[in-house]
């Protein structure tokens, strides 16, 4: 079976779905020799002869022109590449795919956010709704990253449950791991972090619900020595973060430093209204960081009993959990230990194996 991954939207600084696509492409290449990747950027671990170049103009972008170019590319160029290279199954890592299938296709659906929050996604929400409507008619199989997303997809579309495979995301265990105390002084000096800190990682889309975390932190800051550190792009935010000397925001950090932010945080708080998966909680647990997470969407599936859960709109409950994690050494140690155990259940190799199995079912 010749398998191709449509990674044409990838750029050099992938986040979210981009990280998923790059990691899965690498793992599939190692797992299945006849894997080809359509991409304009290198794919670590893949045979360079199996990485088929695509135009830079179709890379992921908030610019309308790039998205229109990618729509044209997916429907006109990708079918030609599939035919030229004798591909049997096309894997699309997000819900962007040729509307006339050139071969059997497997598509990953990460979440249904554009359906629930269309105002946050603009014109892409219109395309997303249209794509989901076509999904059951033209795609051989669908992969979702959680049982929650599978249930939501089948309830909101005509997709039959027996065509949907649940394959959880993974994480890079070589990157996300605890760092030694000897590295802390250089890290805190680089980023000017003088206090212990509570960490949030993620884009500032309104559904990420950072405002609940900010309200809780402001109500507590006089009772604790911590800063609140927010790492994530604010270009998608609809509200400005409050001006406060104890709230530190960083739009972009060196990718290699993200695991340091996790490792030296006193806790990660993930207050999202709901998530399709929630990769940051997994990365944090792998780095030995206690996790407080909302119970929105799939997050209880990922966290299980390795973190503390709260309703995403309950400021007071969140405040109480923050104070407990900050003040109870025994609880922190328990969360760290359970977090390590939970993280070991996930890997990109397992994700790739699940996706490959889905592609083989499609080919059969």
Shape: globular
- Helical fraction: 40-55%
Please provide the ordered H/E string of secondary-structure elements: EHEEHEEHHEHEHEHEEHEHEHEHHH
Radius of gyration: 21 Å
Question: What is the secondary structure topology, with strand pairs?
Answer:
Layout (H helix, E strand, L loop, with lengths): L2 E4 L10 H15 L3 E4 L12 E2 L11 H21 L4 E4 L11 E6 L3 H4 L6 H16 L2 E4 L2 H10 L7 E3 L17 H8 L5 E5 L8 H11 L6 E5 L15 E4 L7 H7 L2 E4 L8 H8 L4 E4 L4 H5 L4 E3 L4 H13 L1 H15 L4 H16 L1
Parallel strand pairs: 1-2, 1-4, 2-3, 4-5, 5-6, 6-7, 8-9, 8-11, 9-10, 11-12, 12-13
Helix pairs in contact: 1-13, 7-11, 9-12
What's the gist of this structure?
With 364 residues, the protein is of the alpha/beta class. The protein has 13 helices and 13 strands.
Description:
The protein has 364 residues and is an alpha/beta fold. The protein has two domains: 3-170 and 347-363, Rossmann fold (3-Layer(aba) Sandwich), CATH 3.40.50; 181-343, Glycogen Phosphorylase B (Rossmann fold). The chain is 41% helix and 14% strand. It is built from 13 helices and 13 strands. Strands 3-2-1-4-5-6-7 form a seven-stranded parallel β-sheet, with helices on both faces. Strand 8, helix 7 (210-220) and strand 9 form a beta-alpha-beta unit. Helix 7 packs across helix 11 (315-327) and helix 9 (279-286) crosses helix 12. The termini are close together. The relative contact order is 0.13. The model has no long low-confidence stretch (mean pLDDT 93).
């Amino acid at each position: 079976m010749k398998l191709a991954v449509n990674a044409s939207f990838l750029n050099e600084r992938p986040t979210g779905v981009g990280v998923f696509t790059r990691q899965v492409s690498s793992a599939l290449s190692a797992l299945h020799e006849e894997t080809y990747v359509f991409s304009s950027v290198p794919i670590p671990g893949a045979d360079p002869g199996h990485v088929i170049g695509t135009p830079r103009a179709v890379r992921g972008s908030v610019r309308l022109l790039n998205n229109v170019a990618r729509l044209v590319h997916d429907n006109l160029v990708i079918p030609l590449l599939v035919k030229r290279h004798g591909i049997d199954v096309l894997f699309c890592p997000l819900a962007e795919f040729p509307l006339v299938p050139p071969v059997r296709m497997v598509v990953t659906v990460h979440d249904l956010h554009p359906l629930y929050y269309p105002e946050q996604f603009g014109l892409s929400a219109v395309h997303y709704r249209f794509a989901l409507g076509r999904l059951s008619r033209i795609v051989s199989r669908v992969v979702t990253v959680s049982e929650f997303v599978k249930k939501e997809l089948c309830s909101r579309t005509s997709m039959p449950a027996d065509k949907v495979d649940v394959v959880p995301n993974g994480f890079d265990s070589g990157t996300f791991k605890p760092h030694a105390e000897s590295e802390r002084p250089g890290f805190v000096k680089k980023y000017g972090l003088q206090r212990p800190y509570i960490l949030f990682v993620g884009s500032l889309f309104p559904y990420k619900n950072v405002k609940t975390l900010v309200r809780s932190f402001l109500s507590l800051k006089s009772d604790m020595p911590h800063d609140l550190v927010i790492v994530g792009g604010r270009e998608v935010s609809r509200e400005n973060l409050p001006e406060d000397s104890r709230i530190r925001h960083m739009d972009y950090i060196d990718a290699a430093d993200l695991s340091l932010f996790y490792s030296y945080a006193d806790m990660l708080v993930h207050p999202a209204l709901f998530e399709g998966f929630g990769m940051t909680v997994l990365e944090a647990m792998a780095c030995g960081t206690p996790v407080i997470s909302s119970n929105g969407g799939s997050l209880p599936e990922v966290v299980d009993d390795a973190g503390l859960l709260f309703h995403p709109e309950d400021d007071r409950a969140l405040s109480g959990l923050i104070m407990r994690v900050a003040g109870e050494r025994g609880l922190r140690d328990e969360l760290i230990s359970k977090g390590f155990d939970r993280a070991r259940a996930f890997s990109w190799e397992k994700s790739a194996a699940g996706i490959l199995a889905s592609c083989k079912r499609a080919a059969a």
